[in-house]
Give the backbone structure.
Amino acid sequence: MNQLERLMQKLDSLSPAGKYKFWLVANFFLVVVGLIVYSYNKNSILVGFFGLLLLIFLPLLGYSSHLLYKNRAEEKISWWWVVPGALYFLLMLIAGGIGLLVVLGFAIGWYKSRKPTTPAPIKNVLPEKLVPLVPKEFEQKPIAPKKTQNQLPPPVEILAGPEHDLVTELGTCPFCKKAGLNIIEHQSLFGLLRSRNIQCSNCLSLFTSKGENQFVISTDLRDSNQRFNGSVLTTQDLEWIRDTGKTVRENTLSNIEKGNLPILTDTDSLQLQKGEVLHFSEPVAFFEPRSIRNYGGGSFRVAKGVRIHMGQSESHLEWRKIDGGDLYLTNKRLVYVGSLRTVSTDLPKVVSATAEKDGLQISRANKQKPEFYSVSDPEKWELAINKLLRI
């Protein structure tokens, strides 16, 4: 016995309510899958296949509804199963009526095209100027350009939004620097879903908006620009790539390595000493290590607030958040100003500055425990501090 026969036996063993539920779910599933397939691949063979399945499933749903109605005294079914079925039948009747009207219109048009028409009578009126007549079969018709595989869809004129702002500010593609950028609108699921992208007409690099002033890059260029594929860049980054070939961060790190650190003019939040300039400032969270002891055995209480632990114990260090504030780097000091404490360290007293995954670890002279600051770009801070220590 094959699988199809087993399935048919299981369907026959179902109650009228069970058959109705099965064919209702099957019809909904078929319609949803058919719409998704059609939105991605408008193939007439696939459309015909799903239409044929629908013509089979719909009568089976109608037959199961008839059985359910005949046994309504014995079968109990919730209203939220009946309402979707009724709405589905109504939708199919409307769609079938529209389909019949479309077929009828095609048939009438085909019939009229086969019926011979009588020519209009010729008026005996001479034209003011003699124009040479050319038979219609010899008239030159405009040749439509062939659509190549890499031909882009027509650009959409959009006067607002992050895509328009990026196209206006960049002008040309920051990667190939040979062509302009076009806003392309994509539609799927019969136009219900729409998305906008920016694409270069030359190198086909794609810019997809991700929030305000951020774009996901997709490029197939086999040069130094390949490193930007899949990265998220801001408009300012793309402008720097167009002009220098590097992002804002890459240019900042390059300048720090050369000893050209940026100088901030807004120094109201920090009192600077004589001859001191501010290079970086950033809001951070301040962490310090704390010893955590774990006991392997049990424990029992001997008095209020006093417990005796049995077995071996192990201790390890764990970072604990102590405070939150601002971290400043000048040419002379590393300063932390928080709500609970303020730490000012002269740069010669900084033993090491290490960039970690989530922040910057600082070790100072005459202090056993290190400090940890949750900066956004640990590599930049580490490079700047080590560069100032070597100056």
